[in-house]
Amino acid sequence: MIDGNGKSSIIRMFHVHQNYGAKRALIDITLDIAKNEFVFISGPSGAGKTTLLKLFYLAESVSEGQILIDGINLSRIPFKRIPFLRRKFGIIFQDYKLIPTRNIFDNVALVLEAAGKKRRLIQKKVRSVLRLVGMEDRQNVLPASLSGGEQQRVAVARAIIGDPQVILADEPTGSLDSEAAKIIMDLLKGVHIRGATVIIATHDKELIRTTGGRVLFLKQGRLEGSAFVEKHYDGAIY
Ligand SMILES: Nc1ncnc2c1ncn2[C@@H]1O[C@H](COP(=O)(O)OP(=O)(O)OP(=O)(O)O)[C@@H](O)[C@H]1O
Ligand SMILES: [Mg+2]
Asked: Which of 50, 131, 169, 192 is spaced 20 to 30 Å from 201 by Cα?
């Protein structure tokens, strides 16, 4: 799928609505995200940011409209293909969501174990991604003995270990101080430079200003606009 700029799309949405009972969480969303874009989904609390991300990786099924992921129509995907589709995504949450009873190595290894990879390869890849996020010295400890920023670095390692095409991050710095947040954003920029599409849901305008990228702005379930924000831009974003 080619968009107006000649880049192929990784995500396309056509007139998507998402309802929870009478609650209209997303209203008539049409958007296009190109491969290797760095995009923020922004807007106030309750605007529908998390809901949008959930639709991409099929954590929710869409009420109305069409979603294409890398050309695959989600409403037509056979049930048994869903795990393969999910492997296109690496997902990062505000609260890290590491498994408390597994050590750092095992938390990260789980993704490749679930994909049936060989033990030797798993060991090599886990060491390499933990080195990338600066956590190789802590692989034998449990998540509880790490700081929030360190846990999120492990969560980044877990998100990227399967070489996903798309990283979805839902308020990834929402629980971190500015120094830890910068480390996480630098890691996500690095993932983007190495070829992934990075989509970050955040209500934090400062984070957008200091990082730069395309911003899709949601308000009360509607897509109100899309703009490119330069790094260190100091004007109003919306
Ligand atoms: N499972 C659900 N059942 C009912 N309502 C829901 C459900 N999930 C989300 N909503 C509602 O849909 C709207 C959008 O929620 P969503 O979590 O996507 O917002 P958000 O932009 O991520 O907000 P925040 O910045 O607080 O995380 C909200 O009004 C929310 O209450
Ligand atoms: Mg949210």
From this structure: 131
